[in-house]
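Worked Example 4.2. Consider the chain below.
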Amino acid sequence: MNKALTIVVSIIVAVVMAILAYALMQYFTVEFFQRRRPGRIKKTSIAAQIEPYLRFLPIPRWIQKRWAHEECARQLRHAGITLNARGYASFRWMLIWLAIVLSMWLLLARRVDLVSTFLSLLIFIIAIAGPGIWLTLQTERRKFEIELSLPDFLDHLALGLEAGLGFEIALRRTAANFPGLLGDELRRAIRKIDRGHTTSESLAELAERNPSNDLRAFIAAVRQAEKLGTSLVKSLRVQTNVLRARRRRRAQEASRRLPIIIVFPLVFCFLPALMIIYIAPPLLHLFLGR
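Applying the procedure from the previous section yields the following structure tokens:
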């Protein structure tokens, strides 16, 4: 009976792995051709490829209420993931079942010893908590990257406005060659303007899909200047100085936290090794009577 169950579980694991391997192969194939022939093949992410299949995956109602709500959709937008909340809930539900199957296969293959039990629990915990932790880390990474490059962008934009350009033209010229995540997001907002949307609507969508409060403050200043007809250059200069001072304070706070963070690897990694090196020989001489 155990042998038959092991064979069934192995077949299920093989099928799931084959599906994942096919999705990865499709993704890397598109990446390769996109780099070799830019502009001919549209770049698609793994999330966009698996989303049509996740729509047909049935999930319980309590799972859908827990992981497919509006707050989850907002977190996905902030993390830059193209999945909707329903697809994200389906993906997490599928991941839990995959973890259960892998844990059963591991327990049956090693006949329920200490190592297989520990690895099974670890796989199950990663399947449950891993996507949420990864989503938070991805959001924080995007927020940090945007806030790091925002003062430089505001300097370039203020220079264009001081040279006599209008706001939309200065925004286009500044965002055209601006590197990094912020440049990609700004070019996406400009493409939305080219499709017929107003500048205010495009900037509002830009603030909605990014987690940076500093970017929201800049967009609020732009919309207020557009509404009241006031000058935007002085506001941008003030915001640039404030953002640079805030970035300097963050760097100082991180440097102050560094000695505290270093204590943990010193205590748990280096100190035991030093204790063994310096104390073990005298103890051996004491107990062996030499």
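The mean pLDDT is 79. DSSP finds eleven helices and no strands in the chain. Compare this with Example 4.1 before moving on.
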